[in-house]
Amino acid sequence: MKVLIRPLVTEKMTKMSETMHRYGFVVDKSANKLQIKEAVEKMYNVSVQAVNTLVIPGKTKSRYTKKGMVVGGKSSYKKAIVTVAKTDTIDFYGNV
To answer: Left, alpha or beta for 35 (phi > 0: left; psi -120 to 50: alpha)?
Structure first.
């Protein structure tokens, strides 16, 4: 099972990483906090202080087109906010 799916790189998460040393990840829905902690420590070589998780519910989207109304949706996902030690940082752009 792949625990970490992708990092969250948004304005809000960038500000949190600069001020509070917190980083966001989209994770597997069945992953627990201990698995997330181990995966982040192993992948980024940092010491994790805390892990907070939340499940973002899916939303339905609809729009009007020439052919009528199109209905679709976004799937739900699990988000983890990881707090690392003050001396550690995670560089998401290092491998680019």
So the answer is: alpha
Mind listing the pLDDT tens digit for each residue in 41-81?
A: 999 999 999 999 999 999 999 999 999 999 999 999 999 99
DSSP the chain: ---EEEEE--HHHHHHHHHH-EEEEEE-TT--HHHHHHHHHHHH---EEEEEEEEEPPEEEEEEETTEEEEEEE--EEEEEEEE-TT----TTTT-
CATH superfamily of the domain spanning 4-84: RRM (RNA recognition motif) domain (3.30.70.330)
Whole-number mean pLDDT of the chain?
Answer: 93
